[in-house]
Amino acid sequence: MARIGIYGSSFDPVTNVHLWTASTIAHRCKLDRIIFLPCSNRRKDKRMKTEDHHRWEMLQLAIQGNDKFVADDYEMKQEAWNVYTYYTMNYFKSMYPNDEVFFIMGADLLVDIASGKWGYEEPLVTENRFIVMARDGVDMLKTISSSPLLRNADDGNHFHLVDKGLAMEISSSYIRDEFGKGGEPRYLLPEACYEYIKKHNLYR
């Protein structure tokens, strides 16, 4: 039985923090595989800055050489009405029926689930397991204890809370802004992705 983490994000672009986070989570939570899941540009709650094929190509460049890292374009292929994390987790659990599948997310998204912003929150929480990464300004234990849904699902098995230990929060939006204003974010993302962005004149 393998332990698999589903790591969803826009990856617009993928950053060194994404990779470091995935590596840290894999190590601490004893995961055999991390599946990087770029979100669809059809989602109503997100506005992508880059076409899907560019985000996909950069992600492939970023994870090459690491046998634990794979990418999956499942959500990229979905229509907007079908892009819910609940459906996504059902898909991956059907793909890996004999394995343990976890959804990896930041503590800020835990707050969103508690606030009812995701859709299908109750079956999502009660039927799945989560690895939750600390975020500055978010009290993970308080978020769980103050939500009837989260605290009643918290049986010691649903939520694995991880404090990464370093405040590495450089975002994709920061990198996009640097490129857009003529800055130099070279060492904040994989070198191959940096060169790809320059070659295709992205984020200008």
TrEMBL record:
UniProt-listed InterPro entries: Cyt_trans-like, NadD/NMNAT, Rossmann-like_a/b/a_fold
CDD domains: NMNAT (cd02165)
Catalytic activity: nicotinate beta-D-ribonucleotide + ATP + H(+) = deamido-NAD(+) + diphosphate
Enzyme's top EC category: transferase
GO molecular function: ATP binding; nicotinate-nucleotide adenylyltransferase activity
Pfam families with a match to the protein in the record: CTP_transf_like
Record has Amino-acid biosynthesis as a keyword: no
Enzyme Commission number(s) from the entry: 2.7.7.18
Gene Ontology annotations of biological process type: NAD+ biosynthetic process
Transmembrane annotation, as ranges: none
Annotated keywords: ATP-binding, NAD, Nucleotide-binding, Nucleotidyltransferase, Pyridine nucleotide biosynthesis, Transferase
Annotated signal peptide: none
Domain of life: Bacteria
Residues of the Cytidyltransferase-like domain: 6-177
Pathway the protein takes part in: Cofactor biosynthesis; NAD(+) biosynthesis; deamido-NAD(+) from nicotinate D-ribonucleotide: step 1/1
PANTHER family, per database record: NICOTINATE-NUCLEOTIDE ADENYLYLTRANSFERASE-RELATED, PHOSPHOPANTETHEINE ADENYLYLTRANSFERASE
NCBIfam families according to UniProt: nicotinate (nicotinamide) nucleotide adenylyltransferase (TIGR00482)
Family recorded in the similarity comment: Belongs to the NadD family.
Function: Catalyzes the reversible adenylation of nicotinate mononucleotide (NaMN) to nicotinic acid adenine dinucleotide (NaAD).
Protein name, as recorded: Probable nicotinate-nucleotide adenylyltransferase
Gene: nadD
